[in-house]
Amino acid sequence: MKNTIVVGAQWGDEGKGKLVDVLAEQSDLVVRFNGGGNAGHTVMHAGETYKFHYMPSGMLHNKQCILGTGVVINPKDLLEEIKSFTDSGHAPKLQISARAHVIFPHHQLIDAKEGGKIGTTGRGIGPTYSQKASRINLRILDIIADDAIDRIKKSLRDVRDILVTDGIFSESEFKDYCESVSQEYASFGSDFKEYVTDTEDLVRIASNSGKQVLFEGAQGTLLDLNYGTYPFVTSSSTLAAAAFVGGGAIPGVPIRILGITKAYTTRVGEGPFPTELDGDAATNLREAGHEYGATTGRPRRVGHLDLYALRYAIRISGIQELAMTKIDTLALVNGIKACTGYKINGKGIDYFPADAPTLELVEPIYTDIPYIADLSKDEWAKLQGKSKADLPESIQTYIKFIEDFVEIPITILSHGPERNETIVF
Ligand code: GDP
Ligand code: IMO
Ligand code: MG
Q1: What is the DSSP letter of 319?
Q2: Which of 33, 112, 323, 424 is the most buried (most CB within 10 A)?
Q3: d(CA 65, CA 87)
Q4: Bigger pLDDT: 268 or 1?
Q5: Are 227 and 295 found together in one domain?
Q6: What residue ranges line ligand 1, CB within 6 angstroms?
Q7: Which domain, by its residues, includes 32?
Q8: Is residue 121 situated within a structural domain?
């Protein structure tokens, strides 16, 4: 029995939500461990579409779901998400770490002012994590405390200089903000109380009693604060290792690390993207794959499958196996290639550049992707439960080519957004 960590192996939106929903059926606990409302995880089942920003994607199976300590939470948005899920006839089994940090409106205002050059989601993620690291932010346990109003007011006094000096608020606006936000967040705190606990204990007890814990990463390895394409990254660690720090995974308990990759590459926001397409080729791929952000609705940048970046992500995150999504979309477009190396000034390199301006200079080395069979839904359905050897030869060749390059197996193939459009080998 192994616990499983699911992480994105590209720049996010690889289909983590879909795969977590698939794997949750066999799990007892589903735990988010990083990020906040910047995540948009789509689950489609029985014709319904769910977009989870906070709630783990195991929700539809009625599993115990946890928001761990590494997550940053806007209580208003989370309460709305809980309400809309409850209104649609579900009963969320949710527990929230008392130690998770709180996103306030001023974090979003700072993000709106400063996040443009990165193209952030505007959800206040960077400012919240940065004030957490500066030890001046509040946690969920503060807003549920009996003296929450006092704690919030005191914490705002600590950030007064940042907010007033930087022109986020005038002096009088700041006073009004302190009054209104402290009342509002203390009231969210009362609504939250029933969900809050030491979630690490739940994960530890479950792991030690042989239960299956599924850890759900947000964003992707190339957006990791330390190892991604800095500064064009998010402000948390997105690697599998973050499940230990932010989700309560226990070193020593056997673990399976599953990375998710699309059959091509996408990115939202600014930053280097060596295999990016433009013009009609980009439009065709974007439309075929409905590549619009689940959180902000922004059109995603799209490009050839970057195996060189994928292999870096696999190595840095310790990914042991891959689930590949959107093979159905790849079959609809012509001319998508696989990048198997990088050149700078005509010379091949043997590392993934840490420096964003250097990464901008990279010239990808491409290999043509063979024709990929475009199967109907019925043809795909017949492949359920079959092995790789039963796939059409073009898809087998393609999978083998990727596996040889990245040196780990593809163990799951996703050929549509619905839960049952998945082949587990
Ligand atoms: P996440 O952030 O990694 O959970 O991914 P998103 O939900 O932001 O984006 C993935 C999108 O692709 C969603 O709209 C999914 O419904 C959709 N999707 C996932 N797997 C597949 C697949 O195999 N084929 C197709 N066509 N769509 C998929
Ligand atoms: P999921 O979990 C794709 C990107 C933003 C921006 C950068 C920093 O759905 O895969 P932030 O708001 O985090 O400070 O933005 O990271 N980004 C994502 N891109 N999928 C995500 O989440 C993302 N979360 C953040 O577009 O470039
Ligand atoms: Mg997403």
Answers
A1: -
A2: 33
A3: 18
A4: 268
A5: yes
A6: 8, 12-18, 40-42, 44, 294, 325-326, 328-329, 414-417
A7: 3-71+200-424
A8: yes
Angle (CA) 73 28 237, round 5°: 40
Query: Both 24 and 167 in a single domain?
Result: no
Catalytic residue (one of 13, 21, 111, 328): 13
Which structure tokens are listed for 94?
């949710």
The residue to which tokens 């007890």 are assigned: 205
Q: Which atom of ligand 2 is nearest to the CA of 111?
A: 14
CA–CA gap between residue 415 and residue 289 (Å, rounded): 11
- For residue 166, pLDDT over 90 is answered with no
Q: How far away, in angstroms, is 151 Cα from ligand 1 center?
A: 40
Give the pLDDT score at 401: 95
Residue 370 confidence (pLDDT):
81
CB neighbours (10 Å) of residue 349? 14
Bigger pLDDT: 370 or 216?
216
In a domain? residue 208: yes
Ligand with the closest atom to the CA of 38: 2
What's the structural domain count of the chain? Answer: 2
165: confidence class by pLDDT, cuts 50, 70, 90: confident
User: Closest Cα partner for 92 from 118, 67, 116, 114?
Assistant: 67
216 DSSP β-pair partners: 6, 32
Domain shared by 265 and 396, yes or no: yes
Q: Is 13 a catalytic residue?
A: yes
CA of 12 to the centre of ligand 2 (A): 7
- Closest C-alpha to 218, from 3, 27, 7: 7
For the segment 52-73, the average pLDDT, to the nearest whole number, is: 97
Cis peptide before 231 (omega within 30 of 0): yes
- Band the pLDDT of 1: cuts 50, 70, 90: confident
